[in-house]
Amino acid sequence: MAYLLFAALLWGLSYGVNGLAMEFATASTMGLLYGCVAATMFFPFAEHASSRKLRWHCLGIGAVQLGIMHYFYQNAFIHLESHQVALLGLVTPIYVGLFGDLLERRRPWLQLAFALGTVAIAAYAVGGRFSSHCSLRGVIECQLANATYALGQILYGRLRAVHPGLADRSALFWMNLGALAPLLLTLLIPAASPPIPFRWEFGQLSILLFLGIFCSGVGNYLWNKGVARVPSDILSIANNLPVLFGVLFGVFFFGEGGNWPRQISGIAGLLGLLWLNSWVRRGRRGKEMGEAR
Q: How many structural domains compose the chain?
């Protein structure tokens, strides 16, 4: 549990730090810089992924889970405050269920309904009229980031099931390397990566190094270590810790405000939807096990 707690603290703090970083760098630049840092950290372990096919699988998963996700995730900070981005991370488990159903060739309509419900509640939670700090575009970008991260989790879980000997440290190198490809492509599209003047100053470099080394590198490694050491019920609770810490850091450390009655009711609605989704899925699994007997 200590691995998960420390990773959650790092990720919770990263929400506010990301908000600061977006003042002097584009989403593509940030993703590339600390993606390179994270890949460099895990480079000594790259030789353990000896299969060329396995490397390509890791590269592809990283392009989705880390590359495309980071682009939408970083851009969301332009339109939302950091604690709002953290709040919207609550809905990721529903996307995990949706993509799990699709890949298992089960009817996804119920999960799709839950996903659409989370978008509506999330839009309500972060602001009704969508001012300059509470934009519908930011909500949509958060949902796209959540969805691509969820898809990457499902794909990586399926890969590990087929290749149980794959080391997480080795996979993280190839995944971070794969993340660079879509981010490089966004640099070629001016509308996708509007220019922001970047100065190689100590403060800016410190923020990017913190995000690359601790949040992207150490955080992902500790989280994967913790996942293998706790039961599923503890893991489901731990998945909400980064959101809790992100909101607390945003309000008390970075001095962000907000419409708290709306946001608290939105959190309650999202948690209620998550509980209902979990209850429905448990019932369906029980029914499937009963039919199998």
A: 1
